[in-house]
Amino acid sequence: MTDSGAALPEYLAGLDFPVSREDLVRWCQENGASTEQLQAVRALPVEQFSSPMELTEALRTLP
Q1: What is the tens place of the pLDDT at every residue in 38-54?
Q2: Distances (CA, A) of 22 to 1, 35, 38, 47, 54
Q3: CA dihedral over 26, 5, 56, 13, signed as positive or negative
Q4: Distance between CA atoms of 30 and 28, rounded to whole angstroms?
Q5: Per-residue pLDDT tens for 14-47?
Q6: CB-side exposure of 15: number of CA atoms within 13 Å?
Q7: Maximum CA extent, the chain
Q8: Using CB atoms within 10 A of its CB, is residue 3 exposed (0-12), middle (13-18) or buried (19+)?
């Protein structure tokens, strides 16, 4: 996971699943994520996340 992806969990509290990547980007923007973190979310290969675990796994695959 990149440094930018590493801090993302603090922005994910209260997020309802399933969630689309676009909704995830919006959620992170509204909760103060940095530009680097938003770029990391936009780079995720999955378009829909069914659970927090699925999202965590996708974040771990970031270069």
Answers
A1: 998 999 988 999 998 89
A2: 20, 15, 10, 8, 16
A3: negative
A4: 5
A5: 889 999 999 999 999 998 888 988 998 999 988 9
A6: 28
A7: 26
A8: exposed
Beta strands in the chain (DSSP E): 19-20, 48-49
CB 60 within 8 A of CB 1: yes
Does residue 1 carry a pLDDT above 80? Answer: no
Q: Are 52 and 24 within 8 A, CB to CB?
A: no
| Domain boundary assignment for the chain | 3-60
Quickly tell me which residue has 């996971």 as its tokens: 1
Cβ-in-10-Å burial (0-12, 13-18, 19+) of 28 comes to buried
